[in-house]
Design a protein that fits this description.
- The chain is α+β, with helices and mostly antiparallel strands.
- The protein is built from 2 helices and 3 strands; from the N terminus they run E-H-E-E-H.
- The protein has a 3-stranded antiparallel beta sheet with strand order 1-3-2, with helices on one face.
- It starts with a strand and ends with a helix.
- The model has no long low-confidence stretch (mean pLDDT 89).
Length: 65
């Protein structure tokens, strides 16, 4: 299944690295990524491919960082 993941918040060093690490650990492919910085605010939109049978509730809880 493909999905769009949107994350926003205060810009911090390593945010994309942390998100990418979590997705890799969950065996989720990043298909496309877009990022925007405005002052100290960060927004990224990521198209991901989620393997069949992946527990989405668990995935959501893991992604809350």
């Amino acid at each position: 299944m493909k999905a769009i993941l949107t994350i926003s918040g205060e810009d911090k060093i390593g945010t994309i690295a942390q998100i990418s690490k979590i997705l890799a650990e969950e065996e989720i492919d990043i298909l496309n990524i877009s990022q925007n910085l405005m002052d100290n605010n960060f927004t990224t939109t990521i198209m991901i491919k989620i393997p069949d049978g992946k527990d989405l509730r668990r995935l959501i809880s893991v992604l809350i960082i």
